[in-house]
Amino acid sequence: LTIDGGTESSILVDDNGSEEDYSYEELCQANPRYLQPGGEQLAINELINDGSIVCAEALWDHVTMDDQELGFKAGDVIHVLDASNKDWWWGKIDDNEAWFPACFVRLRVNQEEVVVENAESTQDEEQDSSASKHCHKNAENIDQMRTNVIKEIMSTERIYIKHLKDICEGYIRQCRKHTGMFTEAQLNTIFGNIEDIYRFQRKFLKDLEKQYNKEEPHLSEIGSCFLHHQEGFAIYSEYCNNHPSACAELTKLMKHSKYRHFFEACRLLQQMIDIAIDGFLLTPVQKICKYPLQLAELLKYTTSEHSDYNNIKAAYEAMKNVACLINEHKRRLESIDKIANWQVSIVGWEGQDVLARSSELIHSGELTKISKQGKTQQRTFFLFDHQLVFCKKDLLRRDMLYYKGRIDLDEVETVDMEDGKDKDFNVSAKNAFKLINKVREEVHLLCAKKPEDKQRWLQACIDERKRVQEDKEMGMEISETQKKQAMLNAKKLRHGKIKGVSYNGCPVPPPHQVLHPIHQRHITVPTSIPQQQVFALAEPKRKPAPFWHSFTKLTPFKK
């Protein structure tokens, strides 16, 4: 048994070695265990136990400072060693083995290519002939490989549409009926523009179905669909920008039992699979990052002579740019947490928060600031996008910084200075450069210790302007809610009120605490059950109060 196409399709191989395609549903009819919650992990683990190599590709960067977690970048290939837990898998990259979040990766459709890559990279010259034979055999099956990827794209797209429909009809529609529980602002925060995404994806799937060749899937020409709708995929940027706020709002609501029971009742009423609401809301973020990986794999098995080759290549580049924006936004969210923690450590901070205008630290270091009166001040400068903040170090505690001011970089021009006497400041300066604000008629003269330090600062100033322009072109923007939340978390952390912040503000237990999860039984609710009974079904039964607890409430004496 080998899985190809994630968990949607499989190939059963008989004793004679002949192959026959089966859908995932047909496979599950033969083995119902795969339909149960955690069934796909069960299938993957059985492959691993049989000695098969199972590899996954990273959807986005996973930055970690925990040695128990595996760090990687988007597109990295991870050798999956254990998938028994639905949230955290055990994997390997090079010689590093650790836990990694399962929702950050996508299983490869054609696992055979891993074997070929390993053969090409590890075999020596004496084994080159056998490796080339393997590659030649792989080339003969390229149509089947392309068929596998095409089928995965179609299958996952249909499943994704079902998830979006369930969210819109199962959750949003029910929430709008209960105006006493949800305000319109809360619903906008939790669900964002997912209804727009649902409408867009239905049109996209309709076009995909037209281009899909059922008789000979490898001849399907789907590249044009991605190119035709590439501008429409921009709506994912708004959703992904809002997603951390959605997680924070859900976390707040889930502290109350009535909301937990309500969302569970919605799931049961819609007969949705056994996934929590936050898992459903993560699917659009995963999906937009999965497209470039799918198209990259499809491009591998699309020859240059294929009529769809140029469109697939262009579609891959287009979807990669969209995914890069999402990945960059996630990285920037991690950056604002660090910046917020930095600001709360500064003594005597004045004015607006640094996050009000900035979201990334570009460069930092020591510079000498010279005033018009010739007074020199040693300061530590922090170059962010849009502003330059400078602080003074404590004479005794060198790790303590005092806020001294900031310079608006949107209004200044950076000018390199030659060594010697400056006519404006009437002082001799070495390794100096100026920041000139023509609007306010301000000039700042800064000196580095070494020529190479000065060059780094000049280059950093160029990079800052380039970064600001790129952010504007990409539409990179951090919401005010996310900035305020980052500052709030930093202040709480500073006072020891919280122990840590996890991905996107959602509390996720560390891997060693989720090794043996308890999978809930999947309940299918018949459509004939009235709605109020379904909501009552989701409400857990209350345990009767113990006798002595009730008795002591009645007696005036307590011993």
From TrEMBL:
Keyword Cytoplasm: yes
Sequence ranges assigned to domain SH3 in this UniProt record: 51-110
Cell compartment(s), UniProt: Cytoplasm
Domain PH: 360-466
Location of the region described as Disordered in the Swiss-Prot/TrEMBL record: 119-138
Annotated DH domain residues: 145-329
Source organism, top-level taxon: Eukaryota
A Gene Ontology molecular function term of the record: guanyl-nucleotide exchange factor activity
PANTHER family on file: RHO GUANINE NUCLEOTIDE EXCHANGE FACTOR 4, SPERMATOGENESIS-ASSOCIATED 13
Name by which UniProt lists this protein: Spermatosis associated 13
Organism classification: Eukaryota, Metazoa, Chordata, Craniata, Vertebrata
Gene transcribed to yield this protein: SPATA13
